[in-house]
From TrEMBL:
<comment type="function">
    <text>Binds and transfers iron-sulfur (Fe-S) clusters to target apoproteins. Can hydrolyze ATP.</text>
</comment>
<feature type="domain" description="MIP18 family-like">
    <location>
        <begin position="5"/>
        <end position="75"/>
    </location>
</feature>
<keyword id="KW-0411">Iron-sulfur</keyword>
<comment type="subunit">
    <text>Homodimer.</text>
</comment>
<dbReference type="InterPro" id="IPR033756">
    <property type="entry name" value="YlxH/NBP35"/>
</dbReference>
<dbReference type="InterPro" id="IPR034904">
    <property type="entry name" value="FSCA_dom_sf"/>
</dbReference>
<keyword id="KW-0378">Hydrolase</keyword>
<keyword id="KW-0547">Nucleotide-binding</keyword>
<protein>
    <recommendedName>
        <fullName>Iron-sulfur cluster carrier protein</fullName>
    </recommendedName>
</protein>
<feature type="region of interest" description="Disordered">
    <location>
        <begin position="82"/>
        <end position="110"/>
    </location>
</feature>
<keyword id="KW-0479">Metal-binding</keyword>
<dbReference type="Pfam" id="PF01883">
    <property type="entry name" value="FeS_assembly_P"/>
</dbReference>
<feature type="binding site">
    <location>
        <begin position="122"/>
        <end position="129"/>
    </location>
    <ligand>
        <name>ATP</name>
    </ligand>
</feature>
<dbReference type="InterPro" id="IPR000808">
    <property type="entry name" value="Mrp-like_CS"/>
</dbReference>
<keyword id="KW-0408">Iron</keyword>
<comment type="similarity">
    <text>In the C-terminal section; belongs to the Mrp/NBP35 ATP-binding proteins family.</text>
</comment>
<dbReference type="InterPro" id="IPR019591">
    <property type="entry name" value="Mrp/NBP35_ATP-bd"/>
</dbReference>
Length: 374
């Protein structure tokens, strides 16, 4: 059954665009509706960037209504601010496989926060959270104002890494105070859900969880907000990367080949949503025997650096496989905080300095891009 533009407009006619009852169809905000030969429907809604947040539920509703029409095989609805508010929205670009993404962008940047950086890994267990936490402390040691947002919905570990427990204080309706972890403002999904609760995260829940933790926490003025991402490169991670106004991403990997394949997927994921890769970190690189000082490379060595070169992204440094790092992490006393001049802290601080030099040259946190790949 062929879908016509009129069918789509009829379906959209019922959706209110504001409190006065003006419908989306009558609001002048709808672009031309495009229906392709496979009955995929594309349209965009014209908004001022400041209205993006208010219009996101309307966009989702519009998408849902059209998707529910018999015969429709897919919908791509975007918010756009490409034209002035008095002009009709431009026709949307149809998504095509491999299309370069990130236009148009939506989702406002976070006021007061200069840079938001995702720390991600292709898979779990590579030391992503330990690295995120010590990097945040390394940035703070440089005199920067730093926040750490634990968005690892599958296994939030930042409360444990910082030895923090309890619920965040509610400052006012819909505003939480972050916790203090060695001078860093910390918020974790682990403070908000019961640690033992098994949860199945669906796309909209992931998006609303990250949005809440970003926007309903009193972060105040920050130079950098580090986001500890859930490991992996699936839909949840992609949703999160898309919903967060990131300045860039850091990928943590161990040196062995299998981990590097996953790290490569991580780089690809961020590229899909046009988030710059600030660099790759090799974790658990060299092991120095605490008894005899002999160096061994339990997981291999140099793989992440070589992979970074191959992918054309910066290499930020390597962190040794070290007992002190593990013990301090697991005891809730991160090494950079408790032994800031020790050898392990020096490694993290050097990587943090390298990261900051990359950030200082990067544009401040941007509105989150929307993906245009289906
Ligand atoms: P992820 O966030 O990738 O799942 P974690 O940060 O939770 O990984 O680390 C997994 C385990 O590895 C933890 O027990 C942590 O203490 C340990 N670990 C992480 N990095 C190192 C390191 N460089 N040396 C020794 N142990 C480490």
């Amino acid at each position: 059954m062929a879908i016509t533009r009129d069918d789509v407009l009829k379906a959209l006619a019922a959706i209110p665009a504001d409190d006065s009852g003006t419908t989306l169809a009558a609001s002048g905000r709808l672009s031309q509706v495009v229906v392709d030969s496979t009955n995929r429907v594309m349209f965009s809604i014209l908004v001022d960037p400041r209205e993006a947040e208010r219009f996101e539920p309307i966009r989702r509703k519009a998408e849902g209504v059209v998707l529910a029409m018999p015969g429709v095989s897919g919908v791509f609805a975007s918010l756009t601010s490409e034209r002035g508010p008095n002009q009709a929205a431009p026709a949307p670009r149809p998504p095509s496989p491999g299309a370069q993404p990130a236009q148009p962008r939506t989702g406002p940047a976070l006021p007061g926060v200069r840079h938001i950086v995702a720390v991600a890994s292709g898979k779990g267990g590579v030391g992503k959270s330990t690295t995120a936490c010590n990097l945040a402390l390394g940035l703070s040691a440089q005199g920067l104002k730093v926040g750490l947002l634990d968005a690892d919905i599958y296994g939030p570990s930042v409360p444990k890494l910082f030895g923090l427990s309890g619920k965040p204080r509610v400052i006012e309706e819909r505003l939480l105070a972050p916790m203090d972890g060695y001078g860093i403002k910390v918020m974790s999904i682990g403070f908000l859900i019961e640690p033992e609760t098994a949860m199945i995260w669906r796309g909209p829940m992931v998006q609303s969880a990250i949005t809440q933790m970003l926007r309903e926490v009193a972060w105040g003025e920050l130079d950098v907000l580090i986001v500890d991402m859930p490991p992996g490169t699936g839909d949840a991670q992609l949703t999160m990367a898309q919903a967060t106004p990131l300045s860039g991403a850091v990928i943590v990997s161990t040196p062995q080949d299998l981990a590097l394949i996953d790290a490569r997927r991580g780089v690809t994921m961020f590229r899909k949503v046009a988030v710059p890769i600030l660099g790759v970190i090799e974790n658990m690189a060299t092991f120095v025997c605490p008894n005899c000082g002999h160096e061994s490379h339990i997981f291999g060595h140099g793989g992440a650096r070589a992979e970074a070169e191959r992918l054309g992204v910066p290499f930020l440094g390597e962190i040794p496989l070290n007992m002190t790092i593990r013990e301090t992490s697991d005891a809730g006393r991160p090494v950079v905080a408790i032994d800031p001049d020790g050898p392990q802290a020096k490694v993290y601080r050097a990587i943090a300095a390298e990261l900051w030099s990359k950030l200082a040259g990067a544009p401040a946190s941007r509105a989150a891009p929307r993906i245009v790949i289906e």
